[in-house]
Amino acid sequence: MLRSLKALDGFKIAATDGELGRVKDIYFDDQNWTVRYFEVDTGGWLSGRIVLLSPASVTGIDWKEKSLRVQLTRRQLEDSPGLDSALPVSRQHELALSHYYGYPHYWNGPFIWGYTAFPMLIDPIPYDPATDQLASQPMDEQPAEGDPHLRTKDEVIGYQIEASDDVVGHVDDFLFDERDWSIRLMVVDTGDWLPGRHVLISPALIRTLSWEEKSVRVRATRSEIESSTEYDSEHPPEGAAQIFQSTPR
Prior knowledge:
Layout: E1 2-4, E2 12-15, E3 18-29, E4 34-41, E5 50-53, E6 58-62, E7 67-70, H1 74-78, H2 91-101, E8 127-128, E9 133-134, E10 150-152, H3 153-156, E11 160-162, E12 167-177, E13 182-189, E14 198-201, E15 206-210, E16 215-218, H4 222-226
């Protein structure tokens, strides 16, 4: 079953020795359409410090209790690299996170999680204190600018959907596969034209996603989007195979 990304808002982060905080926002990349980080507000415990956690640390999701279980301790989070939420996430910050937790770089390798298709299969790389490096994973030089392919859920929800022939609504949510954290579908609110109707389209249809214009351009007509599968939040789809996916124009 596919799950709503918005539904994770406020989920508790349950460490092995106590609660770490709550999910404030979610970062995903718009190349592989995969969740990369949870932005966690640690609340009063760490004076409101914001940190990023990778799905590689998640061992389970408790939907009833609204909790993400992670294989981390409170001390590990306390000492992890902090995030300046006023700035985009830089590749240096991502490198610092992978260095700290020992996770391989997800942008290396043939799969969406680097050399594996599932984040729970990632084995932390041993840390070598003699060199202050992760064994077999050098801290290579990377540009300091924010990664242009990392987006936040809260930023993109509300973006206008531009079909090839007309504006058709706005982004309302994303549906992800909790096995590999890949985003399989986008929920489009067509309320501007068809009040109360929400339809599903594949990210494969997306041509461009613009921060500046707050818009998503898709390879489909307004009619094709409006006639796509309707989204029922009470009965989410099992997968994306039956959802409209147009031939790229």
